[in-house]
Amino acid sequence: MAEAVVSFVLELLKDCVIPELKFLGGVSDQVKLAQTQLQLMQCFLKDADSRQGESEAIRIWVANIRDVAYDLDDAIETFVLKVASKRNASLLKRFTGIFIKRVHLHQIGSDIVKITTRISQLNSSLQSYNLHQTRESRGDTFFQRQKERRIAYPHIIEPHVVGLTGGTEILATHLIKKNGPRVVSIWGMGGLGKTTLAKQVYHHGKVKCHFDCFAWVCISQQCQGREVLEEILTKLISPTNEQREEIAKLKKDQIAERLWITQRERKCLVVLDDIWSRDAWRSLEAGFPMNEETESRILLTTRNKEVASYADKNGFLFEPQPLNDDESWELFKKIAMFGTEDIDQEIYEQKKELGTEMLQHCKGLPLAITVLAGLLARKETIDEWDMVHKNVYEYIRRGRDLGSDYKDEGYEGVSWLLELSYDNLPYYLKLCFLYLAHFPEDCEIPVSTLTKLWMAEGFISSAAVEVMEDVSYMCLSELVGRCMVQVGKHGSSKKIKTCHLHDLMRDLCILKAKEGNFLHIINYSASVEIKQTPNGRVRRLVIHLNEPFEAYCLGRDENYGYVRSLLYFVPIDPYYYCYWNSKALRSLLRDFTLLRVLKLENTSTGEKLPGEIGNLVHLRFLSVRDSAIQAVPSSIANLVCLQTLDLRIRVGYVKIPNPNVFCKMEKLRHIYLPKYQGPREKHLLFATEAVNLNTVVNIGIQASSDLDDFVKLTNLRKLGVMIFDGGEKKEKGTNIIFKHLHSLSVDSIFVAVPWNIILSSPNIYKLRLRGKIRELPEDLLCLRNLTKLTLSGFGNLKDDHIKVLEKLPSLRMLFASVGIFQASLVCSEGGFPFLEFLSLYSLLEFKEWKVEKGAMPSLCRLHIEYCPDLEAVPDGLQYITTLKELTIKRMLSEFCSRLGEGGEDFYKIQHVQSVIITNISPNRPG
Description:
Residues 170-337 form the NB-ARC domain. It is built from 28 helices and 30 strands.
């Protein structure tokens, strides 16, 4: 953690602070000196971070380094704030203006000297901890012990194996297949059973018969290329003692050549268990004939998907799935309740009930189940089981009784294994991972929000050549690829839409965040308040409100004076807000002046957001989404560092004081305006100097030609416009081509759909139209990337217009809703080739729907709701074998009865796995 914090602060100094302090003489020199001292220490920090378990002294030293790096950042930020508060000049020039008071220069100079002195003292103490030595020179036994704990011996077969039969057969088949993949990889998070599965494959009968010789090596995090290659060669050729001595004298390249030749001449299976990085593979690949015709194969296990792909881009990748409830119980019972069949039935049932509840915390992770079951197997009484039940996470994490020494030999929990994944992260990913601790348990985290928060915190470098949003998403993808984060939902373009943490990974995340003083969590409800005293200065604060009543307000505490991010999580309730006391909120906005992130969603802050919001001049992320406010103050114009501003309130209208309120926000990247804005807000936008603007949602315009104001917004990716002109005049069109636009939403309920806007966005993936949809022009076919289409507000469409839809080459999701739908919906053979989801909602006069054989060959889900004139589902549904889910809602009783077993239309849908029929409407009279 300290390495991550120091690296983060050094990046900020290099990119933002040092260049702007160059005119401040001695202060600049002091900051540079502190920077140099931290850089000298940086190379030892990763080693020190990983050795904190060895010594309390090392742990304290690491904590001091972390805190002094934070203090340096705090000192500079506080100085910036004092200077900015004295004048109205641009903050971008805050260091060089004539308004800088000598007292501020003297103060920061004094603070930096103290901090530099502390860093020097900590640097001098390095020798006391042997951190200045390499692991090899000090004969590091700690890492050797870590490596030995993780070695898997292929001859030792786990006695309790559940749920691996299918995976074993799949992997064995790929290994022995003629002209099959050179590398077969097993990828997944720690404790998922990758090594156990590899052993099953290694000893599979067909595999043993197919290959001539075998080698199993455990790579681990400290991969020594020469030693590993020698070990593989020795196991494959079974050398004599004389040959072993000869091999021991060879150089790495000579060993690699012999190994390469051996695999060319014989059918070899090499298992590389637990390989962590591309560097590890690079140190070994010279020993494998990857580009030669050979029947030798590699079976590889890894926690990093990138490693598997790097080893062989054409290889076969297999991800084991967590055990389901039945499999989890079967494994648990084999270990924890073996030989207890003859005990009292009542005791057995009580243990079964407790065991079933405890298994829910394992979430199907085999290691966690094995650890838990191993503990309980040594406990006989119900009271002992109940004790484990009350502290189940601690028992699973430690793998021993809570009163025993954590360092004792014997049973071990899952914590140390999952920590290896965390320790292996680069510093920037550690910060991104720890930030997930902000979110409540079982929360599906919106990726769009998460990546914006990372950017606001400064975790994503603004100096990157790539667009910051892309870099941020790549960080998330890498955490997924390293099995630290799990995917929730994918969007229509197959990008990750939501994510979450496995319960045990979340437990580790919170533990590491608290250990490193990364954030402070307060759980609060109307009846119970769980508060922990902050451990030193708090820089990130998250408050979980369990009931949507009165917001928890922070009292004055010197530890909160340096908070950079404040996030409130409120239960979503359509009937309630979380109410703020206006005085308390104003106090908060006055005191938390260093805030970069403020999330006040689903709250009521009074009729107007307090004017004190303008004090937060460092703010980069502000969201009052789904809140109850009616106006924002003019002081919001002071927030010139804002990157993300979300004003999408739940209902109603928000008054924005004047057209120039956003004009100084040149760093703005994402702006979400209230949905109910009138045409007079057309020009209230940010001045168009915000050239990095990525998202504009709910901007009101009078005609599509008004978008010419956006001429400088060449990086725009998401645009939502509302057209308010009530006339039927012909559109002039816009002169801009939005070539980077990916998502477009157009509300034109008073005018015909402005197709000129849509056709000016040739690369969009998502399109939402709401208004008077009277035609679907043939030109829509130029939207080659369109994957999701939402159409709402039909009127007088013709049959030939509808035919355009089935020709869209990439369409995966289609939502058609609301309006008079008199046209015939004919899905022709080969039409809608990639459509996976179709929703038909509230379409009046929709009677004729025909699906030809061979249409919609990829359809998985179909939703039909309130289409009262539709008499039956089309006959062609019976040919769509991919259809897995059919939902019927608010349809007439007669329509629904035809679909029931024995009904006239049952044969059309009998192959569908899930058919849900709800809210059946009565038939029309007569």
